[in-house]
Amino acid sequence: MLAFCHASAVATFQVLNVVVEPIQAALKVSDTEYSLMQGLAVAIFASVLGIPAAAVADRGNRRRVVLIGVVIWSGASVACALSRVFLYPAALSLIADVAPSRRLASAIGAFGSGGPLGTAFALIGGGWLVRHGDRVTLAGLEGEPWRVAFLCCGIAGALAAVLLGSVPEPGRRRVAPSAAATAGIAGNLAATLLHLRRHWQLFAGVSGGMLALSYCVFATSSWSPTMLVRVHGMSYATAGPVTGIAALIGGALGAGVVGVITDRVEGNGHRDAALRVSMGIAVLFMTTMAGAVLTPWAEGAALLVCATYSLLGMPTVVGGTALQQISPPEIRAQVMAIQVLLVNLLALSLGPFTVAALTEYVFHRPASVGYALAWTDGAGALAGIVAFAASRRAFRKQRG
Question: The domain spanning residue 323 has which CATH number?
Answer without folding.
Answer: 1.20.1250.20
